[in-house]
Sequence to fold (315 residues):
Amino acid sequence: MTNWNALYDRLRAAAPSLELRRDEPMSRHTTFKVGGPVPLMALPRGEELKAVIETAFHWNVVPLFLGNGSNLLVSDDGYDGLVVKLGETYSKGEVYTNELMVGGGMLLSRAANLALEHGLTGLEWAAGIPGTVGGAVVMNAGAYGGEISQVLHQVHTLGYDGRFEVFRNEECDFSYRHSAFLDGQHLILEAVFILDKDDPTTIRARMEDLAEKRRSKQPLEYPSAGSTFKRPPAVDGQPVYAAALIDGCGLKGLTVGGAQVSEKHAGFIVNKGGASCRDIIELMAQVRERVFRETGVTLEPEVRYLGMEGDTWNF
Fold:
């Protein structure tokens, strides 16, 4: 068991100005707005990051690298670990001709707008996604036919052992909502995208069209983690969508505690107010059971779960 007080003191000694938080509620750091405390959270700037990683490695502690928490469901009991969340230092971006280089801590929506400002197309689909660039790379985020893997050139990472590495696109093992970084062993420091030139007016029009589709179809007024379940495998070459299956089973509006299957979009489970992690998991379990019973399809969570040691999905 880690002595968190002692690790706190060592981190403070290694980086005196480092922002450290004790017993930090994860509900403040997830878009679901649920989650219990973590014993220690570090929010490094600049060279503080390497000091944090090296100190944790010396203590045999593997940090959890946190982005915007937009695809994370955290246990009500919290998580017994060190959480490292990137600060503003890692949210900068630069453009060189058709290359967009952005920090892993930058919001993906900001990266899309930076591309727009320089007349670069390829990230319009990303303008409404609430996660960070780093989190988007880890999950190979996508929407409206676009995916990170389609435009990513390379990724600069820092391993939990303090080693810097560069991964080319083909080394990232991308597939649907998957990458080589899902094991949590690498922090995404920077991503380099190769985009195409286009007229900014045309790019903006595409972004506004997609934004209107999101506003009209998605429950953006409530906390959520976006699509709750992954897209199931195709059947006879035809795509199958989780939201359509859930809707077809009459589950829109199904509620457990403060959690609800959105009445606007069946693919979203939302926090209507005061939802707990237990509420959300129980609701997910009911949805999975009903969909399987009526369609034979097993829905797999797209949202990632974070709990105490040995704690997993309860279904």
Observations:
- Residues 41 and 251 are 38 Å apart (CA to CA).
- The mean pLDDT is 93.
- The two ends are 28 Å apart (CA to CA).
- Residues 277-295 form the longest helix (19 residues).
